[in-house]
Design a protein that fits this description.
118 residues; Jelly Rolls; 9 strands; 0% helix
C-alpha cells in the first residue's frame, strides 16, 4: 500500500541546508517537501521508498528532475531512462511520464510555469 505525503510549507529562507537531508525515506511511501512554491513555478524534493511507483501523468510545463540520492527509473513518452546520483533530465511539457523506484531514491523537481503564455 503506497502512502503519499506532501508538505507544502516552503523551507526557511536565508538558511543553509543540505538538500539530501531535507527529506527522509518513509517505508512504503513517496514523500514530497516544498522548497519554493510560486505562481510562476515551484521546486520540490521527493523521496521514494523501494518498490514505489508514481503512475503516468502529464503537466503543461517543462519539469527538470535531478537525482540527489539513489537511482530512479523514469519513463517519458514510453522511453525509459535510468538516472543515477547527480544526473538530471527535462521532462517536456505535455509529455506522459512516470517514476519507478527499483531502489530508494531522492530527487529535486523544478517546474517553470512562465513562458507558456503564447
Amino acid at each position: 500500500m503506497m502512502i503519499s505525503a506532501i508538505d507544502t510549507v516552503e523551507i526557511e529562507k536565508s538558511k543553509t541546508h543540505i538538500i539530501v537531508q531535507i527529506i527522509e525515506y518513509v517505508h512504503n511511501a513517496v514523500v514530497t517537501k516544498t522548497i519554493i512554491k510560486k505562481i510562476t513555478g515551484n521546486i520540490t524534493v521527493s523521496s521514494f521508498d523501494a518498490g514505489e511507483v508514481l503512475k503516468e501523468k502529464t503537466y503543461p510545463f517543462d519539469n527538470y528532475i535531478q537525482i540527489i540520492d539513489g537511482t530512479a527509473l523514469i519513463t517519458i513518452n514510453r522511453k525509459e531512462f535510468s538516472l543515477r546520483l547527480g544526473e538530471g533530465i527535462v521532462i517536456p511539457a505535455h509529455a506522459a511520464h512516470s517514476f519507478n523506484a527499483n531502489e530508494q531514491f531522492k530527487m529535486i523537481s523544478t517546474i517553470i510555469k512562465s513562458g507558456y503564455e503564447d
